[in-house]
Amino acid sequence: MAYFMIFQNPNVDLAWYEPIWKKGQDQLKQIHPFSSFIENPFLMAHEMNNSINSHNIDGNMQGVYTFNKKWDVMFRSGISSRQDRIEQRRPFDTANFPLGYYKQQDVSFFESNTDAMLNFNDKLLPKLDFRASVGGNLMKRATKVNNSVARGLLLPGIYKLSNALTTAVAENELQERETNSVYGFLNFGWDDKVFLDVTGRNDWTSTLSKGNNSYFYPSVSTSYVLSELFELPKVISYAKLRLSWAQVGSDTDPYQTSKYYGTSLFPGSAEAPSVLHNTALKPENTNSWETGVNFSLFNNRINADVNLYNTKTTNQVLYVPLDITTGFSNAWINGGTIRNRGIEVMLSGKPIVSENFSWTSTVTWSKNQNTILELSNDIEGYQQILASSGVGAVSAIATKGGSTGDLWGFGLVRNEAGQVLFDAKTGLAVRPKEKVKIGNAHADWKGGFHNEFRYKNFTLSALIDGQYGGIVYSQSHHKMTEQGKLKHTLKGREEGGVIGEGVVQNADGSYSENTKRVPVNTWYSDYYRRANVETNSFDASYLKLREVRFEYRLPKSFIDRLKVSGASIAVYGRDLAMISDFPVFDPETAAFNGGTIMPGVEMGQMPSMRTFGLNLRLQL
To answer: How many CA atoms lie within 13 A of 578 on its CB side?
Structure first.
């Protein structure tokens, strides 16, 4: 549908599309005047269906046996099962399936978890509480996908496998994985003022090769209630300091460490893999330090929380593109070392508190710095492509000292004074030979402002949030500019062309003002071409009215008759308004590169939706 909005001729009345099918050719020939490239929007909405019918079963059992006041043992087992029936229907006369298409997909997901944990709880000293636990977990997960595909239909509009034009093709996939774990906890508490927690866990996973499939990750955290340990000024109602260190390990998806052939449409044959496996794939590891303080002032009228963190991630499992001359299009690798460090701040206050009215205001602010300390050893070179939106377009490229959000691509060529260079003969911008860093997709900082007003049984709240900095590359902007559908393309239409703002280089090496006029269609298709990441990238800053909520708590006299402890009814709206210079719809966007999310890239974005709702809450 997004591509229809991009390619649709603006002077074509949408009502012309509404009958969907040409007269006398129902289910055979769609109506799409002046362009066979785009599908009829009513056809997409009503005939090109992707449906899902899902059934879920979740359950668990738990038993605890208490030996005495100090010792107990817990056994727990649970399952999660889901069965999905997914159907994909495509009628006749579509661009990809002129003779129709039908796909029936049955997805079965099953996961089981079984735990056993032995617990000890006692006081080592009159003021020293101690608790210890040791246990294990067995996790099994299986996902089975059965696809049946009819590429072409005998009769239009009949979506059954028996209506396949040729023999329906079956495609099957099974993924299984297991993780066995042992873990332990030590918890100390002194006089409810000082706390210390120590944990350790070791996982053995089936998704990694022997030698790399076992990984241990511990953690230590401590906190101190300063307001109980020291005599602080009376204005400080409460103060707590916390400090923690932790390691976290994780594996990857199954079947990435060995070579597997894929299924083929031809009976008795198989396809060579397009993804390069990695027999030496290691578990991902994140090492983090965190410290923070939260405190309250003036009898809890003012509350604040400040948190500082520093994390280093090594051996991140990445799915990266490869040059197809290698025989593979992608590969699984372990990343290098990535550091994230930053600050998170929360400040809340109650300017007005009375018997019938109160006002609570909360401000949040955060800033993160992402730095690549070391590149992966699995790929040679000083640059490593993490993701790409297409050949010649924007790429996320990792460099030592750079960031995982760095966006690279072709831009504009400038002279020493920063002036854009143009070709004296054509009047078009000079094209660079190499890709350069255009900007970073990550925001400089993010923040929010929440206000809540209570009057008797009524509550009105509003949340504003946003971010500053970062860029977004917009492929929609490129395409709609090329077609002259955006307001800025009015420039040059009355003058018979556009003169680029910049200079041309003279034979003696000096520069003079560019005066060459370029026809409008040539100018916009070249200056804003897909490969020019610089001219199609924009500031990602925004401010949003994220939510407004109005709630009424039902009076006690009414609640007593309902035999509940509380009840309320509320109306709300989310994503109601936005302020941003982003020229398409919403800078809070990302694109998919296969199964990988690529931040800072917009491709065929749909308008953001406002959400309105009614909420009824009962407390038993």
So the answer is: 20
Cβ neighbours for 351, distance < 8 A, ≥ 6 positions apart: 359, 361
Token pair of 363 as six digits: 């401000």
List for the chain the helix, strand, coil content (%; round to 5): 10, 55, 35
Rounded CA-CA distance 93/531 in Å is 32
Q: What are the tokens at 63?
A: 């038993």
Tell me the pairing of strands 330-334 and 275-276.
parallel
List Cβ neighbours of 483 (8 Å cut-off, separation of 6 or more). 6, 7
- Which residues 6+ apart lie within 8 Å of 89 measured at CB? 47, 48, 49, 50, 51, 101, 102, 159
DSSP letters, 194-219, are EEEEEEEEEEEESSS-TTTSEEEEEE
**Cα(118)–Cα(136) distance, integer angstroms:** 10
pTM tops 0.85, yes or no: yes
Place of tokens 């090492």: 287
List own/partner pairs for 381-385 with CB under 8 A and 24 or more apart: 384/320, 385/320, 385/321
Q: Which residues pair with 30 in a beta bridge?
A: 21
DSSP 162: G
Q: Averaged over 498-519, what is the pLDDT?
A: 95
Give the torsion sign (CA, 520, 523, 525, 527): negative
Asked if 411 and 436 touch (Cβ cutoff 8 Å), the reply is: yes
| Separation between Cα atoms, residue 66 and residue 290, nearest integer Å | 36
Size (the chain), residues: 620
Q: Give the tens place of pLDDT for each residue, 467-506.
A: 999 999 999 999 999 989 899 999 999 998 999 999 999 9
Q: What is the pLDDT of residues 39-53, one digit of tens each?
A: 999 999 999 999 999
Angle, CA of 18, 20 and 23, to the nearest 5°: 110
8 Å CB contact between 17 and 42: yes
C-alpha–C-alpha distance, residues 173 and 188, integer Å: 48
Asked whether 122 and 70 are in contact (CB, 8 A), the reply is yes
Buried b (16+ CB within 10 A) or exposed e, 587-598: bbbbbebeebeb
